[in-house]
Sequence to fold (397 residues):
Amino acid sequence: MESIAAREADIIEEFSFLEDWMEKYEHIIALGKELAPMSESNKVDDNKIKGCQSQVWVHARETEEGIHFEADSDAIITRGMVALLLRVVQGQSPKDIAQYDFGFLDQIGLTAHLSPSRANGLLSMVKQIRLYGVAFQAKRG
Amino acid sequence: MLDQTVYESLLNPRTKVVAFNHISNALGTINPVKEMAAKAHAVGAAVVVDGAQALPHAVVDVQDLDVDFYSGSAHKMYGPTGIGLLYGKTEWLEKLPPYQGGGEMIQEVDVTSSTYAGLPHKFEAGTPNIEAVIAWGAALTWMQQVGVANIQAHEEELLAYGTALLEAIPGVKIYGTAPQKAAVLSFNVAGLHPYDVGTLLDQMGIAVRTGQHCTQPIMDGFGVPGTIRASLAAYTTKEDLDQLARALERAIAVLA
Fold:
């Protein structure tokens, strides 16, 4: 499996070809369309992330390969944002996810979208993903 | 507007206070305040009206409306943030006790009793927000110089222009189509989430609000997660609305 660092490098390179914000958004929208569907049974309030204008759900379960995430949103840009985050953490170990700072967001110019006042809930999604890492790490003991 | 049949059914001699908004922030709908106030007074209820959206957009005469209380917000009226107003009929203000203690609101202080200052000081405890009062005064002077009736006429023209522009774009649905309506365009595009559309409009330099506008019951009533809302004001131009329409068409193309 590719490391977090290798996956980050891929994304940073991908975004380096995008000229302006509209192109970045078009790419994020495309990622949202490609995100694997989430099972309806996991689209429950317990998996819903607070602080978003759109509805967004993130669910995680532990597998032998690492943590497997599922996510969805009713807004396509939010769906694309969460797809981007999951690309890096999908299948990684609880420990790596718990410690991960999502540094690539800064390098692709998305940090401005991380401020708590932004309605997209990106910060809440990041926190929730890390929380899953912490929780599964604690479970392993 | 607010359903008058339902409104009347809620009024009875046990009704103490009736509170409603003059103009809906989510839809722009103008409610018939004067008629509603008369009906509430007929059962002996006090009438409290939220005029935050009306004061910037319409000529308001609280005496003619005959409401007991009327509130407004400076930052909706080209003024500073953090300051608002509450108009109250003298008889009510004299009847009500102070809600907060502090300097300026007291008249005589005795060991066992105190008396309070007269109106409006009774309700203005402590050091007021002096700078904001002065700044708001300047904003209000400007509004009066331009003329609220002129602002209203300008906005009505823009509303008709903007409504026609948006309705010409396939898939656009406008929420709030009351004949008596203030200058706000609340809309959605079929199949698209308002947040997505708003995000792209923002990228193109168009300032709109998206979301539920703190009116979840209205949004639930329409069965939508929210709307995109363009608010028009004295400084809005037809060119701004042309830009909105062009940007909206581009956003739809990107999201479709």
